[in-house]
């Protein structure tokens, strides 16, 4: 009997091999794709439903409070009593703090989406729209946990930037939390000219030319290296490789990792590039050279040679020129300017092992905007006159 069982198991295995050899694997993959798509749709629908629910609850709370007499006192009592009533009728999940968040959510987002709802109300009538409340009427693109972060960002341009990026890049709640905590918006803004800065809130981070990838500083707090401890460039490189997914997120859009300690030989001399990436949006190689000390002009010259080698012997004719980034503990803009020609594809960027002071960066950005407004505003007034 045992022998017969072994034969049938062998027959089943043979059948499976025959099925696989008949390219049925593609069919299996298509079935898996349908299931995964359905699961994503269920998750997306659940997220949208939760956001619309809290938005509508917030709207009703605001409208009720506006009709109250002693608003502050009435509002506190209203939320407490509404919370108790809802928990009794529909179950847990509507604490007083949740209702406060719903109210803030509505106040934050109602100006930007109210006209969409009003248009639908005029077309279908109020009763009709309430019946189709959970259709995809509202332009919410993220989950409720994401909006808990976003609605606390007072600056509308900054909030819109993070919403665009979180949607396009499909950031998780933790990734959005990290990017906001690392002051991504301020770091990108301070690395750009006025026109590029103005586009951040409308388009998010663009990746169309080499300067678009720059951030100053690059924040590497996830490497868990102590700021005041001594560590080598090899230690820094190893830490980056061990947290590669986090590092790619910090680098930005379109980066693919190709090699570590990429070796090449030229005229019998051996050279090593610390990290080699490829950016599929810029369609070019990106070479990273790591320095744990202050930037020196010799470092820039060395990286320029690496870039020249890749341009002449590695990249294809269809690919764009190679980009070199010197990641250093401290850079000197004057040294960079004097060492490199104007059309150089070499950039220097500082890195930081701790999250930056958001308040300090915000004040720097405010000063930067004020300077630009004085320069450009003055020019416009003179031309008008």
Write up what this structure looks like.
The protein is α/β, with parallel strands linked by helices. Helix content is 61%, strand content 13%. The chain is built from 15 helices and six strands. It has a six-stranded mixed beta sheet. β5 (323-330), α14 (333-339) and β6 (346-352) form a beta-alpha-beta unit. α2 (24-67) crosses α4 (96-124) and α7 (156-168) crosses α10. The model is unreliable at 126-135 and 378-385 (pLDDT under 50).
Q: What is the compact description of this entry?
A:
By secondary structure, the protein is α/β, with parallel strands linked by helices. 61% of the residues lie in helices and 13% in strands.
Itemize the secondary structure elements and their pairings.
Layout (H helix, E strand, L loop, with lengths): L1 H20 L2 H44 L3 H19 L6 H29 L1 H6 L12 H7 L5 H13 L4 H9 L2 H7 L3 H10 L14 E2 L13 H10 L1 H8 L3 E12 L2 E11 L4 E11 L2 H17 L9 E8 L2 H7 L6 E7 L5 H27 L1
Parallel strand pairs: 1-6, 4-5, 5-6
Antiparallel strand pairs: 2-3, 3-4
Give the overall pLDDT as a whole number. Answer: 80
**Percent helix among the residues?**
55-70%
User: How many DSSP helices?
Assistant: 15
Structural class: alpha/beta
Distance between the termini: 103 Å
- Globular, elongated, flat, extended or rod-shaped: what is the shape? globular
